[in-house]
Amino acid sequence: MSSGLMVALDMDESEEAVQLAAEIGPSVAALKVGSQLFTRYGPELVHRITGSGGCVFLDLKYHDIPNTVAKAVKGAAEMGVSWLTVHASGGAEMIRAAREAAGDARILAVTVLTSLDKQAISQIGWDGEVRDQVVNLAAMAREAGADGIVCSALEVKHLRSVLDDRCVLVTPGIRPAGASIDDQARVATPESAVADGADYLVVGRPIVNAPDRKEAVRLILEEMKLGDVHRERD
Ligand code: C5P
């Protein structure tokens, strides 16, 4: 399987998001609607994107009691989204409830946010290595039924060695060489993330803030192809 690009539509204006979705939708694996857009425009925006053929990844990172998450996931699935996220730290029962409610939508469990570095993680009270934390959360989430895991590209290689082959690995924190890392901490280039075994890369600002967004998508897809050649996963 070759890798796919998921573009984070992190912007304030719905018209701009719908237009970008229409322009790049056919060449990418999914259009990610996160809390920035969804809080302003809600299900109507999701319907506009799916209505024009776009595949939507609803990234609201649910983290609540199992019953509440299940009800929210059911609502998301009814909107026609293809992917959605929960926080793995919500626990196995919550993830199980999400999977049961998701129907055809795929559940991705977020392990440790890619914006957190070692110091930030110890401030939350998580001791030890980031990688161990990611592995524990990922293994528990997969066991509880998550279809895939969201992690940093720096952790992909190791996760591949502990998780089954069918588990989808999705990596944000992607920066083409030389791009600003913004608030991300654990970053990698598109080529190395793919070569290490990521299935889908999530990219926001390097595309959204580019002077020519379509060209930025094209260049990232080119870089990903280079990684596909060295990919350790078929
Ligand atoms: O702009 P940038 O490429 O950093 O955007 C990354 C996107 O991925 C954002 O929409 C962010 O919410 C999301 N994300 C992340 N780290 C995670 C999970 C999701 O950065 N662990």
Provide an overview of this structure:
It contains ten helices and eight strands. With 234 residues, it is of the alpha/beta class. Helix 1 (14-24) links the parallel strand 1 (4-8) and strand 2 (30-34). The termini are close together. Cytidine-5'-monophosphate binds at residues 8, 10, 34, 59, 110, 113-114, 150, 172-173, 182, 184, 202-205.
Features:
eight-stranded parallel beta barrel; 234 residues; 8 strands; 10 helices; binds cytidine-5'-monophosphate; alpha/beta; single chain; globular; 47% helix; TIM Barrel
Largest sheet: 8 strands, parallel, barrel
Show unreliable segments.
none
Query: Can you tell me the CATH class?
Result: Alpha Beta
Which strand order spans the largest sheet, edge to edge or round the barrel?
1-2-3-4-5-6-7-8
Summarize the helix and strand pattern as letters.
EHEHEHEHEHHEHEHEHH
Mind telling me the C-alpha Rg? 17 Å
| Strand residues, percent | 15-25%
Number of helices: 10
Shape: globular
CATH fold-level assignment: TIM Barrel
